[in-house]
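Hi support team,

I submitted a single chain yesterday and got back a structure, but I'm not sure I'm reading the token output correctly. Could someone confirm the output below corresponds to the sequence I sent? I've pasted both exactly as they appear in my results page.

Thanks,
R.
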Amino acid sequence: MTVWSWEDKKLGSKARAALWLVSEVGEGNIFTKGQLRAAFPEVAQIDRRVRDLRDHDWQIDTRREDDSLHLDEQRFVKKGGEVWLPGQSKSPKEKAGLTAAQRTKVLMADSFLCRSCGIGAGEAFADGGQDAQLDVARRQIVQPDGSVAMQLVTECNRCRVGGRQRQADLSSMLGRLELLSPLERGVFLGWLKADRRDPSPLERIWGEYRTLPGDARMTVRDAVLGMDK
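Hi R., thanks for writing in. Yes, this is the structure output for that exact sequence:
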């Protein structure tokens, strides 16, 4: 059995960086750019080699994805493909880097809004923290014929981290649309044309009610029951 070492300079710098993360940092732990560069003083672009690991399903978060990190820190969240194995170091074709024009095209098509939570670039999250940053993510889409395609979608820095490996099933969605009444499909079509859906007054009240403590919810419940008498 071959024992792979990050100090083996016969390996490529990307493979060595991956092995360093696994053996010296460990999943879930934080490392700094200084520690990385100290481990690879002879590799001028070792930061880029670590970024390249994301193309092999490695999750390495920066402050952009995890606002608890400092600017010089990164968190090794999850190991991906074993890029040190022969034939595994080449990035998958579908994960080739996007050009600036391709990225802009996706952002424009999505109206510069996160397609998971609806937040816009620079807007503040409801619970505080740094403002939203938008980027282009890849989403698995199950086609009506059962095949799976990888498509590009705009997501904010929070949804992109929480939504990794997310999959959408078009066949299921189309089937549910067919079950709607003509009136309901008309309403849905209106949302499609406007590319937005404003909650009704009833939905706003329900959303506010759900945030109340137990005693306050009971007060609202008693009041509503009294209104019907």
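A quick pointer for reading it: The beta strands are 29-32, 59-61, 73-78, 134-142, 148-156, 167-169. Let us know if anything else looks off.

Best,
Support desk
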